[in-house]
Amino acid sequence: MADRVHPAAGSPPPADETTKSQPENHPPKQAPPPGTYVIQVPKDQIYRVPPPENARLYKKHQKPRRSCCCCCLAWILGVLISLVLAAAIAAGIFYLVVRPKIPKYSVDGLSIKGINLTSVQTNPTLYPEFHVTVRAENPNKKIGIYYEKGSSVTVFYSDIDLCNGALPVFYQGRKNVTVFQTALTGNGIRLSDVVRGNLLTQQREGQIPLELDLRVPVRIKVGAVKTWKITVKVRCDLKVNDLTEDSRLVSKSCKVDVDL
């Protein structure tokens, strides 16, 4: 038989192969009660939630975060305000340097053909023809005016369109007065008995009211710079003594408006 080896006195007993000895400073772990589960979560995934009594205070003092849309809107508004201010400053400087003035317009003469009130009953259709003499004055010292295509001149009587035409295309220099004549024509004008009676009465009195509307697109020239098209609108209230070639202006009054 082989000799048995006995452990020496005072040596520690050999460790069991299936169990390990617990550290001296840590008590052995107790098994969880039956019916419960233990879930282990990594420490870096644990989120701390404030207690209910502090959650309300945290929410009250927490600053709201601005969304990207609010930031973009604020940036766009800032850019728009800057552009408006820059445009206002530029307009103010332009006004102080150039001192622009609105052109003046008036009707200096009016010759009428094709309206014979005594023969309306036999020939009720009229083909009037007006020759209008217009005086345009540019009072500006630093501004020239280009009169572009697309203008219109219309003569009315009691909201009845009598004839139409256009102004010539030309350039008007600084401190310049230009007088030109334009021909207006109408086709197939039919007057009612009431309108014809009013015209006859006013012709006998020598006070026939007419309205002349003028619209013309212009470009302003300052130095070597030409602006965009600007529409000049003129309305003239006229009175003539007769509807013939020898008609004479009894009164005239013109108002000018500019559509930028």
Rg, Å, rounded: 49 Å
| Class of secondary structure makeup | alpha+beta
Question: What is the number of helical segments per DSSP (H or I, 4+ residues)?
Answer: 3
Largest sheet, in brief, is: 7 strands, antiparallel
Number of E-state strands: 12
What's the shape? Answer: elongated
Cα separation of the termini = 127 Å
Average residue-wise pLDDT? 82
Helix content: 10-25%
User: Roughly what fraction of the amino acids lie in strands?
Assistant: 35-45%
Order of helices and strands: HHEEEEEEEEEHEEE
Residue stretches low in confidence (pLDDT < 50, at least 5 long) are 17-21
Please characterize this protein's 3D structure.
This protein has 260 residues and is of the alpha+beta class. 21% of the residues lie in helices and 37% in strands. The protein has three helices and twelve strands, in the order ααβββββββββαβββ. It has helices at 52-61, 68-98, 193-205; strands at 104-113, 125-126, 129-138, 144-147, 152-157, 160-165, 170-172, 176-185, 189-190, 208-222, 225-240, 249-259. The strands form three sheets. Strands 4, 5, 6, 7, 10, 11 and 12 form a seven-stranded antiparallel beta sheet that branches. The chain is elongated, with a radius of gyration of 49 Å. The model is unreliable at 17-21 (pLDDT under 50).
Summarize the structure.
It contains 3 helices and 12 strands.
